[in-house]
Amino acid sequence: MLTHSQVWTALDRLAERAGMSPSGLAKRAGLDPTTFNKSKRITADGRERWPSTESVSKALAATNSSIDSFVQLIGDGARSLQSVPLLALAQAGSGGHFDESGFPAGKGWDEVALPSASDEHAYALEISGDSLRPTYRDGDIIVVSPGTPIRRGDRVVLKTSGGEVMVKELKRRTTRTLELQSLNPAQADRTLDADDVAWIARIVWASQ
């Protein structure tokens, strides 16, 4: 049975994931800033006050979140937050930020608290510009997990032996080649020789 505490906890986690306080989330959603405050969750006579479906819907829209992601934030099924290394995607191609295995290394990394990827080598990249629209927008953060298995259809980050870092969807992978689909329809798809790929890692979460 869904409880009063679970719903409010999910809203708190939704705000935290978006880097906001409950009142900040309410304001972004176009609601009264006190809508999600803890003082509003119990009435003066001690009764539980639940958030309306309209306010939850507006909060999801304000954070570009789906109802499925909100359900994941409820109760024991919620993913815990952890601090992971953060780097701007535009910087990822410059030298010194990754080791030979594609793990974060060197200086220039920041930190951000995001849902746990269950991978000690997980890291986050911040998207800049519009080159990955409509899949990712300027300011979106993606979590990359080098330890997560990759399948056809997964979105991935990869680095070529020439130093180019790109974000694509894996269409097909053989022992000889990788066929990659661009996330932006205006950009051409790519086919790379397997020997030209230094490392490849799966995107497991995005702040949408």
UniProtKB/TrEMBL annotation:
CDD domains: S24_LexA-like (cd06529). Residues 85-204 form the Peptidase S24/S26A/S26B/S26C domain. The keyword DNA-binding applies. InterPro entries: LexA-like, LexA/Signal_pep-like_sf, Peptidase_S24_S26A/B/C. Keywords: DNA-binding, Transcription, Transcription regulation. The keyword DNA-binding applies. Pfam families: Peptidase_S24. GO terms for molecular function: DNA binding. This is Helix-turn-helix transcriptional regulator. It comes from Bradyrhizobium archetypum. The lineage of its organism: Bacteria, Pseudomonadati, Pseudomonadota, Alphaproteobacteria, Hyphomicrobiales.
